[in-house]
Amino acid sequence: MPDFSYEKEAYSKGYKLVCGVDEAGRGPLAGPVCAAAVILPENCEIDGLNDSKKISEKKREMLYDIIIEKAVAYSIAYGTLEEIEEHNILEATYIAMNRAIDGLDIKSDFALIDGNRVPKGIKIPCETVVKGDSKSFSIAAASILAKVTRDRLMLEYDKKYPQYLFAKHKGYGTKAHYDAIKQHGVCEIHRLSFLKNVLG
Q1: What is the pLDDT of residue 19?
Q2: Terminus of the chain with fewer CB atoms < 10 Å: N or C?
Q3: What is the distance between the alpha carbons of residues 112 and 97, in angstroms, rounded to a whole number?
Q4: How is residue 165 annotated by DSSP?
C-alpha cells in the first residue's frame, strides 16, 4: 500500500511542495494519453488510496472527488493523439506530464514520478519511483485523477462512436475493439501507429 515515505524523504531535504505525477492511457489503441500532478498536504490521509489499477471504477470515482477536495493543488493534462502520432507514445506521455506539472496553480518544488525514466523537459528536481502508484500517496492520487479523467473522456467518445464500444474497454485492445475495427474501420481518435499490424 502507498504511504508518505517518499514525500517525507523529499521534505527532509528541504523541499516543501512535493507533487506526485502519473499517467493513464499509454497502452490503448485510441484516444490521448492523460497525466496528472497532485500536491497533497503533509500526512494527508485518504482511506483506500491505492494504484488506480487495483481498485474498482466506482471507488476511483469516489476517491477522485476526495483527492480534488483535499489536494493543495492538482493539474490534469493530455498528450494529444496528434502528438502520439507525430512523436511516439513515450514522448507524448512526457509532454502530458510536463503540462500537468506546469499547470499546477501552486507550483511544486519537487516531483515524484511514476516509472523508471525522468521525463524530458522537467523543470524541477524530481525522483522516479518504479511502481510508484503503489508506493507513494501522491503518485497514487495522480494515477486516480489521470485514470478517471481519461475514462470519462472515453465515455464521451463512446457517444460519438458507439460502434466501437469505448465505454466498455476505454480504447484498450480487447477482442471486441479489434472486431469493431475490422468491421467499421478506424475513426478519427484511433492511433494509427498502434494499428499498423491490424490495418496491413
Answers
A1: 98
A2: C
A3: 11
A4: -
**Closest to 42 (Cα-Cα) out of 17, 21, 62:** 17
Closest CA to 157 of 169, 149, 166, 148: 166
Dihedral of alpha carbons 163, 76, 122, 41, sign: negative
- CATH number, domain 5-155, options 3.40.50.12160, 3.30.420.10, 3.40.190.10, 3.40.50.300: 3.30.420.10
Are the C-beta atoms of 89 and 71 separated by less than 8 Å? no
Among 94, 84, 109, smallest CA distance to 35 is for: 94
Q: Which of 135, 106, 118 is nearest to 37 (CA)?
A: 106
The pTM of the full predicted model, rounded to 2 decimals, is 0.96
Q: Where do the domains of the chain lie? A: 5-155
Residues 147, 150, 153, 158, CA torsion sign: negative
Task: Give CA separation, 28 vs 14, 100, 195, in Å.
Answer: 39, 20, 10
For residue 42, the 8-state DSSP code is T
Q: Residue 199: its pLDDT value, please?
A: 65
pLDDT score of 43 more than 90: no
Spell out the alpha helix ranges (H) of 71-136: 81-86, 89-102
